[in-house]
User: Fold this.
Amino acid sequence: SVSLGGTWNLVSNDNFEGYMVALGIDFATRKIASKLKPQKVIKQEGDAFTIQTFSTFRNYECSFKIGEEFKDVTKGLDNRTCQSVVNWIDDRLVCVQRGEKKNRGWTHWVEGDELHLELTCEDQVCKQVYKRA
Ligand code: RET
Assistant:
């Protein structure tokens, strides 16, 4: 399978607004965030991942090991704490974020030369596509 590792630039961002509303992110932050073109840097060493999201407004970082539950503080997003776990399901990196919000999580996968990311919260799904920098 293809590596998720590397640097990726956002090229499309479907229903980010709905996802942010579901997370309870305030209007002013949503207006700024919706105009961003974040860059993702994904580092993998065996089962250990670090995923960094960089933007001109705010950055976000998450580190985890496959199959190991971790305390996921969504600092700079909605600032909630989730009990999260990431697993490979086929060639997709799937995270379940257990916490205050129902049906929360994300899935990363590579399709051709694109990185796909689906973000879910409650009944909202945001679909992002990235291309290698
Ligand atoms: C930004 C800007 C501030 C407001 C929001 C943001 C959203 C970031 C997201 C990051 C997802 C990261 C994942 C990492 C996996 O390890 C761009 C920081 C709402 C949704 C899935």
